[in-house]
Amino acid sequence: MYMAYGYPQVIPLEQGQYPTSQNIIYLKLINRHLLVVSPLHLELWSSSQHRVRLGRYKRDADSLQREGENLQAVWSPDTKLIAVLTSSFFLHIFKVQFTERKVQLGGKQPSALFLATITRVLNEQIPFAENDLTVSNIVSDNKHMLLGLSDGSLYSISWKGEFYGGFGLDSSPHNDSEVATLSHSPVNFTASGEDDRTFASNNNVSKKSAISQLEFCVLMRLLLILYSDGQLLSCSVSKKGLKAGESIKAEKFLGNGDAVCTSVAGDQLILAVGTTRGVVELYDLADSGLLIRTVSLYDWGYTMEDTGSVSCIAWTPDNSAFAVGWKLRGLTVWSVFWMSSNVNHPSNCGMNMDIGFMLLRRDRWREFLHFLLENSEETDELKMLHLNLPVSYISHNWPVQHVAASKDGMYLAVAGLHGLILYDIRLKKWRVFGDISQEQNIQCEGLLWLGKIVVVCNYIDSSNMYELLFYPRYHLDQSSLLCRKPLLAKPMVMDVYEDYILVTYRPFDVHIFHVKLSGELAPSSTPDLQLSTVRELSIMTAKSHPAAMRFIPDQIPRDSALDNHISSSSNLLAREPARCLILRTNGELSLLDLDDGRERELTNSVELFWVTCGQSEEKTNLIEDVSWLDYGYRGMQVWYPSPGVDSFKQEDFLQLDPDLEFDREVYPLGLLPNAGVVVGVSQRMSFSACTEFPCFEPTPQAQTILHCLLRHLLQRDKSEEALRLAQISAEKPHFSHCLEWLLFTVFDAEISRHNVNKNQISVPKQNASLLEKTCDLIRNFPEYLDVVVSVARKTDGRHWADLFTAAGRSTELFEDCFQRRWYRTAACYILVIAKLEGPAVSQYCALRLLQATLDESLYELAGELVRFLLRSGRDYEQSSTDSDKLSPRFLGYFLFRSSFNRSSFDKSISFKDQSAHIAPVKNILENHASYLMSGKELSKLVAFVKGTQFDLVEYLQRERYGSARLENFASGLELIGQKLQMGTLQSRLDAEFLLAHMCSVKFKEWIVVLATLLRRSEVLFDLFRHDMRLWKAYSLTLQSHPSFAEYHDLLDDLEEKLSPTANSEDK
């Protein structure tokens, strides 16, 4: 898939003196050369490693005035000629020739770029029958070009400048029955979400309809004509090409009569049609124009009003993705078989209907590589590793064409235009060929890892042959070459499993080799590698070519896999894979039996797949019981082995987990079997004030599939296997999250099933439900209590009774949390208890929990409990009888007294004017405040007041001579100083908080102590100037205690300020 990285590169086109010189009328990329045509000039650029202008042609002012500006252009497929049509219908034909002059790029390395000359070889006016015609665009083959005109006709011209004249097509296709019966795929939704199955009733082209676009596919000899009324006509072209009208035959209409643009993927045989509805329709040209699917931004929340109609479509050069531009705003890149590619949707990125765009293929790796790694030692999060390729290699061999990772993921093989290099991720070192001549003799067409051996498919240019080269990873040199195996032809696909290599040639010949290594694979020894052919198949099929093939090893129980195997030829044959998966270029996934050559189709519209069984020797492989996974427009699908005739069973993650749909903006790249997650990358953008362009940042993402595997086992009554898998996964990151999603998806499905069957006659339940099995599984782990209440909080309270019928009574789960001192989890059960058991029981549990949280100094949680108690108590009081009202008060007074016993508190507090639900709460809070104040735990007191919103002012006014009283200034100052630890900022803030409250109640003893600790001389001065006796006692106390020597400077400052006051009193 194509992912943008970094800031967009700007190609500085030549600026003209006319405003229209900024426009681009034609953009074409062929063989890493980019042609740009503006109304005034032409420019030819290199679009490879270096963006360099290789040639240009600029028209003079007389030519522009006489013949008009450039209006349309086309570049011949062989890149030798360029045709330009002006606004006055003059045809200019230019010849492109590359000179021997190399472009100097700087540095020591020579450049492979040559300058080009663009010369005009023809200038003729087209003899149109009418002068008021307009031209849609120009298409061509290597001999002729074709123009679409506004009167609905076509005009043919040769590249030699021969005008064949205009001609029209039969307004009715030759096969009307096909048009009427053209079928769609089973379900295709438009952007509005409505099923769209019918074609427009009017399939005849009006003679007055103008041609708005021509599209010609040379490989298929297919001409598409798009008319201004939205009709799209498919035409076949004979071997004569675009020369005359008789060589072009109208075949059928495609679409719904609302097309605005088209683009053909010749390799994939897919037609993309943009519509006025803002959606893109994909048609299978290999299957009579069958509508494959409809793609849109509807699922991302964008409607037709946001984007407008589709403006333009362009396929990537390899036809693996296509870009879509909308008229109002937006640019999106989609992959062929999946709708959730990266979506870039800036607010003001409109696409002019008259200006197309070309998606320039930017190679996935240029001078650097990006890899996703799981760093299990330092952190559980994925990170992106950015590798700079060695300049000495990439400067000669740009671009990177193949990358392969070893099975353990610790080594990378990278191949460019020639040679290859290896990277050791642990040591962070590159290994290259010491002899550059050996490097240049290798043209890599494919890479594989065979254990510690890298396998290179090499193309021999001199003999036009292919071969397999086997190099040890510790040395890249001809002297270390282990084996050289000639191949029959260019391989289409290759794969490796243990000691077996699969090579497939065209049309469909499968060869399997067995590798035997003798000797130790080390620099100090001389190992010997032998390759033998163990299987050859030649299969006749009319299907499309394979895009990938993977061995499917036989899945055997883990216990038997641990047995000692006897090394014998029979054992080697037993281990040889007998099946393989085939992914064809059209997205079809099938299973090939290598014994008899039979192929069984599994599914279609697949873009990626991963074989998971037999891929890991570790016991911690969480997905060993899964055969493989595939990914396409349906989402992620998992395949499990099953007994019986159907040996494999397919399950759709999205169907089972509608709320766990793989993020539509995340493109999956692979699996981490030991973590049970799918790893992908998403396209992110960041903006900077220094540039108008965004910075594109691919970001790694991961999504767990453990919950899907566990549910699969539970659905098949494999509870023991599910428990064993969960136990293996218990130490993995996000294990608790997986259990929560498992219970949530099962419970959500249970709710939906009840809603569907609520009007049906209930049938007595025979076996345990899936919900009960899930609860029984999770109950084996300490996360159970937290998982159950988390799922409850995410679901409607009306269904809690069903959940806790399977999970256990809410009060019992609360009590379990309470005994384990998991108070935060226990607090989450309070609301559930209130719903299921009633407010009286929830008040009782909340009061118990409040006392416990205060004892543990969990003041934020205590504050939440206080607010719940007061709120629910009011509701309970309004609906309860008088006897019920006494229960919370009695429980609060009798059961929840603090361990600190203070008789003065019991005498001073009065419940006369308080509601029954307030009294126990206030009783608990004031008991705790008294406990903290008596122990001078002032930092905790501040946190307690802030967390619970306790009224400290009222409490201090009442407790001035109780628990808040200071017996002695000296001892109080010393004790409070030790408790507060005034050296920290938080302690000073706590002291300021207390000082403010003490000042509000004019509590002198505390004001003097706290102001002294804070060195607030202004507060002390204001206090002492009205009470000189207090000042003298204060001064004498500080001077007489050696431990208070640090406050002598404060005394001096106060004495200086108070001396006028003292003198006036003496007089």
TrEMBL record:
SUPFAM superfamilies per record: WD40 repeat-like
InterPro entries listed in its UniProt record: Ric1, RIC1_C, WD40/YVTN_repeat-like_dom_sf, WD40_repeat_dom_sf
Domain of life: Eukaryota
Residue ranges of every copy of the RIC1 C-terminal alpha solenoid region domain listed in the record: 707-879
Keywords: Membrane
Localization, UniProt: Membrane
Protein name: RIC1 C-terminal alpha solenoid region domain-containing protein
Protein source organism: Hibiscus sabdariffa (roselle)
